[in-house]
Design brief:
Elements: H1 17-26, H2 48-56, H3 64-71, H4 75-81, H5 83-90, E1 99-102, E2 111-115, E3 121-125, E4 132-135, H6 136-153, H7 158-180, H8 184-189, H9 194-198, H10 203-218, H11 221-228, E5 229-232, E6 235-238, E7 245-246, H12 253-270, H13 275-281, E8 284-292, E9 303-310, E10 317-324, H14 331-334, H15 342-353, E11 362-365, E12 369-374, H16 389-410, H17 413-420, H18 425-454
Antiparallel strand pairs: 1-4, 2-3, 5-6, 7-8, 8-9, 9-10, 10-12, 11-12
Length: 463
């Protein structure tokens, strides 16, 4: 994967940090820092409900009402499911011209803890369905907007929410500035682990982190096996929890056909793994599979859980998740991915942005493009609505740190830091944008509720 850091004339891999920083600063003439605070809905802005309806056309029709129901719950839920809507809006905002590998959906619920291959718990970006090289500002603006929307729902004041955004963006600046002084390998190896988080919070916060660590330690294939599987006539089987987990045969012949394609595509997936992972996976045999509903924006895309077992003792399970990878919502604005298979696009983007990725991460193609990883491997997320104000502020700063670290791996920290400078001008501008966009999100959410009430949209609330 090649990610061009910028189009600045004369800047090469031989350029010094000072030269790259100066080139970044010069880009302010193209996109002044304060210009990032400017946004208003375009006169020709697409109807957000029509955008969602268009996305739903390629999704499993029986699951679309669940997607709409989940998005209807709150403005924040709507924001989570409407990355495509926001991408269209961001296309009309200024950018510096510096390119990084984007998450593409960097809202506050798409960060969290997960296990490294060494079984350490780290904090990082954890969703890459939309990943693509593009303007680093887009991820930051989505993160900032989500902070305002989530903060409003938590009952925080406008002043508190604005300050949370300013502090988070300044944290991004600080991490990027530090990265600008680091060697490339040190930037690549940088990470945020539980010990770092523990040292950054007071005793009450440490207790919460310890609780999350214990919870994460149970979220392994072995840990979730009793909850997700049962023994039927001497054979293990994934438990049905309709409509969230359903066996293929209960959905008709069309889904049976897709199930056969998944099984047929598995050998091709195995070939995308390193030889040591192939050997490890060969110790397991296939047992069962079921269709699973995941996330908010992803609901309706095809996602399967596959159960494997090693040996015949029934105590060595492995759950893999096989998930559809569609076109990125960023492609209309940054160009098509260099990867023909969108599963590979997701996998390569994840490997580029994350400090450590799942050992079974790979891709294949069935009836659609697919990527594969372990299910819930020590993965833990934060319930934003349960956070105190201090915890919320800390959490959003950590998200910004993780995003800066991820952007620094593929981009040029010196150029981005040079563009940002040392003032709070950029942070204040992003806060203004976030407030205006949060207002728009609330209007879009209201439009969804109206469409549901009118019968234009079918919605089913499952939580």
């Amino acid at each position: 994967m090649t990610v061009s850091t910028a189009s600045s004339e004369g800047i090469t891999t031989n350029s010094t940090r000072a030269e790259r920083s100066a080139a970044g600063k010069a880009l302010r003439s193209k996109a002044p820092l304060i210009s990032h605070g400017e946004w208003a809905p375009a006169s020709d802005r697409p109807d957000p409900i029509s955008v969602l309806e268009e996305q739903n056309r390629t999704r499993l029709p029986e699951l679309v009402p669940i997607r709409m129901g989940r998005m209807s719950l709150s403005p924040f839920a709507f924001l989570r499911g409407s990355a495509g809507v926001m991408a269209n809006d961001l296309a009309k905002t200024p950018v510096s011209g510096i390119t990084v590998q984007l998450c593409g959906d960097a809202h506050v619920s798409n960060f969290g803890g997960f296990a490294t291959p060494e079984r350490n718990l780290v904090f990082d970006v954890n969703d890459f369905d939309e990943t693509l090289p593009g303007a680093w500002e887009w991820d930051l603006k989505r993160l900032a907007a989500s902070i305002i929307v989530a903060g409003r729902e938590n009952g925080y004041s406008a002043k508190e929410n604005r300050q949370a955004v300013v502090d988070s963006i300044q944290q991004y600046q600080a991490v990027m500035q530090h990265g600008a002084s680091m060697k490339s390998l040190d930037v690549w190896y940088a990470h945020i682990d539980a010990d770092i988080l523990m040292g950054s919070v007071k005793r009450k916060g440490q207790k919460r982190i310890e609780k999350q660590q214990k919870r994460a330690s149970r979220r392994t294939s072995e840990g979730v096996f009793p909850k997700l599987a049962e023994q039927v006539e001497g054979t293990y089987r994934i438990k049905d929890e309709p409509p969230l987990i359903v066996h293929i045969e209960e959905l008709g012949k069309t889904q049976e056909h897709e199930a056969e394609r998944i099984k047929g595509a598995f050998d091709a997936y195995v070939q995308t793994l390193p030889d040591d992972r192939k050997l490890l996976l060969s110790k397991y045999h296939f047992v069962d599979m079921a269709l699973k509903v995941v996330g908010v924006g992803s609901v309706g895309t095809r996602c399967w859980v596959l159960l494997f077992m090693a040996g015949g003792d029934g105590d060595d399970p492995l759950f893999l998740q096989v998930k559809e990878a569609d076109d990125s919502t960023l492609e209309p604005y940054f160009g098509n991915s260099v990867y023909a298979n969108h599963g590979e696009r997701v996998v390569q983007g994840q490997r580029l942005m994350q400090e450590a990725s799942d050992i079974f991460l790979g891709w294949t193609h069935g009836e659609v493009d697919l990527y594969v990883r372990q299910l819930r491997d020590m993965k833990v997320s934060t319930e934003i609505a349960t956070l105190t104000k201090k915890e919320f502020d800390f959490y959003t700063r950590v998200c910004a740190s993780a995003l800066a670290r991820a952007h620094g791996r593929s981009g040029d920290p010196a150029m981005i830091s040079g563009y940002l400078g040392n003032s709070d001008a950029f942070a204040q501008a992003i806060a203004r944008f976030a407030e205006v966009y949060a207002d728009q999100t609330e209007r879009d959410h209201a439009a969804l509720l109206a469409a549901i009430k009118e019968g234009r949209i079918q919605a089913k609330v499952d939580v």
